[in-house]
């Protein structure tokens, strides 16, 4: 009804309803029916938990790529053997279903996320951890190990390794919020004792594949959905734009870390001798050469055929050794 009734018209309408002179059925028939194009209300249940579309957050993929490269570099340094970490999946799941899929042997860190005061989990497969421990203590790193509990001494080593993982995860997410922190609450190796959130709570899982020698497994980060909600806008736009402005520094860091793992050969050059092809062909066992180099003088150390350092030669514990004395400045 588009027309506003006056006071007299309202009084007349009320009187007609009281006296019965107005037929309500006739009024309903005269009322226009609702248009088919009219918008209808959508039912909504406030208690229903909806999943978050993690695929629509490109900033999250960038964080995971950077985190994987940092974990590969830092864990390789800590463990003493090559560790390869790659992003695998990022999914939503109900927390109870996630715990049901986790099977021993497993190592679980239970963390408190600050400043939100929510809880989070970091889990690593037992096969990977057994291989890391075997290599750490000088063993062959055999991944075929029966399930057993970790000893107190092994737990100290594992805590140091997991400290590296926690630190790198924290640094990666600090780009979104400088106050972001992961505080260790306790550890578990039985999934049923890691139920620190309601079983019907929606969580998002970030899974990384890990290779240590012949052993393969996963590192899984379980965050509550509230963490993703807090940073959703930054992961959609702000964080991505910031990375573009900064020149994709995360990719540069990853490239530097990968290059730092490349092995190079160092060759100390004690001296050189020039000879003809005929002299070379006539060489035989027992021939001697005078290099014309005083052993007390500095000699060059070549890397890739170029002089990089200068050194002195000597003997340490009965073995030949060199001591770097200075760096050779590249010629302009």
From TrEMBL:
It is a peripheral membrane protein. GO terms for biological process: bacterial-type flagellum-dependent swarming motility; positive chemotaxis. It is found in: Bacterial flagellum basal body; Cell membrane. Residues 258-328 form the Flagellar motor switch protein FliN-like C-terminal domain. One of its GO terms (cellular component) is bacterial-type flagellum basal body. It comes from the Bacteria. The keyword Cell membrane applies. Keywords: Bacterial flagellum, Cell membrane, Cell projection, Chemotaxis, Cilium, Flagellar rotation, Flagellum, Membrane. GO terms for molecular function: cytoskeletal motor activity. Pfam families: FliM, FliMN_C. InterPro entries: CheC-like_sf, Flag_FliM, FliN-like_C, SpoA-like_sf. The keyword Chaperone does not apply. Belongs to the FliM family. FliM is one of three proteins (FliG, FliN, FliM) that forms the rotor-mounted switch complex (C ring), located at the base of the basal body. This complex interacts with the CheY and CheZ chemotaxis proteins, in addition to contacting components of the motor that determine the direction of flagellar rotation. This is Flagellar motor switch protein FliM. It comes from Magnetococcus marinus (strain ATCC BAA-1437 / JCM 17883 / MC-1).
């Amino acid at each position: 009804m588009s027309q506003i009734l006056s006071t007299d018209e309202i009084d007349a309408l009320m009187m007609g309803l009281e006296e019965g002179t107005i037929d309500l059925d006739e009024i309903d028939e005269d009322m226009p029916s609702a248009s088919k194009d009219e918008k209808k209300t959508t039912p909504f249940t406030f208690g229903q938990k909806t999943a978050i579309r993690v695929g629509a957050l490109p900033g999250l993929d960038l964080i995971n790529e950077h985190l994987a490269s940092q974990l590969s570099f830092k864990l390789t340094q800590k463990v003493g053997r090559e560790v390869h970490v790659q992003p695998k999946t990022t999914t939503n799941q109900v927390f109870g279903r996630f715990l049901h899929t986790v099977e021993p042997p497993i190592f679980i860190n239970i963390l408190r996320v600050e400043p939100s005061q929510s809880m989070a989990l970091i889990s690593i497969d037992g096969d990977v951890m057994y291989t890391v421990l075997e290599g750490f203590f000088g063993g062959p790193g055999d991944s075929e190990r029966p399930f057993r509990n970790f000893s107190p001494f092994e737990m100290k080593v594992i805590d140091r390794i997991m400290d590296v993982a926690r630190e790198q995860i924290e640094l990666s997410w600090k780009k979104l919020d400088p106050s972001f922190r992961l505080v260790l609450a306790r550890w578990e190796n039985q999934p049923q004792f890691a139920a620190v959130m309601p079983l019907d709570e929606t969580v998002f899982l970030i899974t990384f594949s890990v290779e240590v020698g012949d052993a393969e497994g996963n590192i899984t980060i379980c965050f509550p959905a509230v963490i993703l909600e807090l940073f959703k806008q930054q992961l959609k736009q702000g964080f991505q734009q910031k990375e573009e402005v900064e020149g994709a520094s995360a990719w540069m860091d990853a490239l530097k870390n990968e290059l730092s793992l490349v092995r190079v050969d160092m060759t100390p050059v004690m001296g050189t001798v020039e000879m003809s092809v005929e002299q070379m062909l006539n060489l035989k066992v027992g021939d001697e050469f005078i290099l014309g180099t005083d052993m007390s003088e500095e000699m060059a150390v070549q890397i890739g055929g170029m002089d990089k350092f200068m050194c002195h030669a000597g003997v340490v514990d009965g073995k030949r050794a060199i001591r770097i004395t200075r760096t050779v400045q590249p010629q302009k």
